[in-house]
């Protein structure tokens, strides 16, 4: 199982970023997928979850409405659209597939003026 996150970078407050996670090594469409993040000096925090077929979607506290999780089973890619970003969104963002104890390398997101 391999997970490769991309799309991070530096963005100003109020801006947007779209993260992607390309997955391989398992049957992508059969699994729920998640995004987590870890800010400097803090533990890993749940961001969002999407079930098989996108039928059930959950978000971490205070993120729904600004963040949108989606998936493309054909391209084996998980996405996270982040809008109206805030400095407290600064973190390394990771994707995770349910059922496998594997993490990608993460992608750094920095929100700063």
Q: Provide a count of the helices.
A: 0
Please state the structural category.
mainly beta
Largest sheet: 6 strands, mixed
Unreliable stretches (pLDDT < 50, length at least 5) are: none
Q: Let me know the average pLDDT.
A: 96
Query: Distance between the terminal alpha carbons, to the nearest Å?
Result: 37 Å
Helix content: under 10%
Anisotropy-based shape: globular
Give the strand order, joined by hyphens, for the main sheet: 2-10-9-4-5-6
N-to-C order of helices and strands: EEEEEEEEEE
Approximate strand percentage: over 45%
Please report the total strand number as a whole number.
Answer: 10
Q: Give the radius of gyration.
A: 13 Å
């Amino acid at each position: 199982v391999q997970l490769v996150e991309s799309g991070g970078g530096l963005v100003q407050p109020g801006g947007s970023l779209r993260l992607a996670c390309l997955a391989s090594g398992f049957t992508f469409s059969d699994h729920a997928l998640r995004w987590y993040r870890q800010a400097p000096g803090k533990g890993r925090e749940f961001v969002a979850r999407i079930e098989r077929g996108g039928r059930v979607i959950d978000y971490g506290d205070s993120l729904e409405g600004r963040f949108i999780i989606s998936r493309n089973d054909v391209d084996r890619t998980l996405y996270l659209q982040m809008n109206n970003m805030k400095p407290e969104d600064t973190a390394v963002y990771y994707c995770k597939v349910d059922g496998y104890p594997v993490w990608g390398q993460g992608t750094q997101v920095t929100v700063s003026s």
